[in-house]
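User: You have something folded?
Assistant:
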Amino acid sequence: MTGARRLDPWIEGYLGYLAEVRRQAKRTVSDVRCTLKRVAEAFAATHPGVALWELELVDFLRWLERERAAGRTAACRAKYVSHLRGLLDYTWWAGRSDRNVLDGLELRDADARRRPRVLTLEEARRLVEALPEATPGARGDRLIVLVLYGCGLRTSELCGLRVQDVSRERRELFVRAGKGDRERVVPIPDGVMTALLAHLLERGGARGPLFRTPVRHRKLSVAAVCRVVREAAARAGLPADVTPRTLRHSFATHLMERGVDLAVIASLMGHRSPQETGVYLHALPPRPREAVERLGGDVPVAHRSVR
């Protein structure tokens, strides 16, 4: 590892196993490394000299409670448990421990699922219209917002787009840098395609990053994209909590409002399954109830006389 602090050799061996044997994506291995580094540092302070696979279940439960008190969500803590369970399984299989104390432990998400922050259609329109088109740089910023909202991309996915990822014939974006290194193809709406073609024309056929810095022509950073959205929201008079993720949530929610199938939305969003897309059901609380109510007239019921 270059530029990163190495962990316990056994943990480094486990991370190598994930990368080389299990063929886990680089981002996944990096995420596991972050978790194990966080846990190792925490227990180094409370249980110095004790390896993670030598700890008892109660030790992990106390640590998880401290994480909860510090504001870590149930989803985040469940991810920690999953990553730790993998390490402890690996250690048990190798005979370095006699059991996996986290085997069978599941954290129930008792937290109320928060609705994702989404824009109304009117707010989305105001956001786009607030962006000027007077200069190439301004038009580039406008296109960033259009692609985030019109194609539902993650910020990192947008930053990773290259000119050759735009299919003019099929009017599609090829997303290479998806979460978990999963690739997908996303249709480009007409309004976005028009702005995108104008952007490519201004580029004069130059290849490389689709969105790039003005000086060295390197790909834009996530921070730069967040700044573009934040400044656009301020011009449109929208709250300061509007982020690129807000535009992605709005994309999915507005599709769902139009009755698009959940599996289709999952595919467009780059989710592993429709279940992962279920968070957007919470953005539309009346809809499940309305669906059931519509079914009510068709459900057979047993008739009985009422005296």
The two ends are 80 Å apart (CA to CA). The CA atoms of residues 25 and 180 lie 6 Å apart.
